[in-house]
Amino acid sequence: MEPDFKEGDQVLVSTLNFSNLKGPKKMRDSFVGPITIIELIGNNAVEVKLTEELSSKHPVFPVSLVKPYFQTEEGKFPSRKKILTPPEVVEVEDSQDLFKNQTADKDKWLAEDAIPDGNLHLRRFRAARRTEKSHQ
């Protein structure tokens, strides 16, 4: 059976037999690329132009470890229309105020402008958390 590839095609190469990639095998990408086909070798293999990162690998791969690369989903499905849904905008009007040494049933909701110096307290709290994390 003839491969569906030709010279100059962009393909993705399987990382199944790659042992020199960083990170746990479970977290690695299944394929790398896109990589350009330089030459078809018989019916069962392709020679590709490897990137600098993969230059230690042999550039010939069996067609079973290569799959076509589609630049975008539009290339794979040209008749599919994109449906863009704008994100839902939610406005927060109230915030819950917790008091020290009080039980949860004593909590109450306050309007943002009802909290005196709320922005100042929030900035101080966040700054304290940043310095606390940097010293750990």
From TrEMBL:
Domain Tf2-1-like SH3-like: 8-69
Record-linked Pfam families: SH3_Tf2-1
Originating species: Austropuccinia psidii MF-1
Listed name of the protein: Tf2-1-like SH3-like domain-containing protein
Source organism phylogeny: Eukaryota, Fungi, Dikarya, Basidiomycota, Pucciniomycotina
Top-level taxon in the UniProt lineage: Eukaryota
Record-linked InterPro entries: SH3_Tf2-1
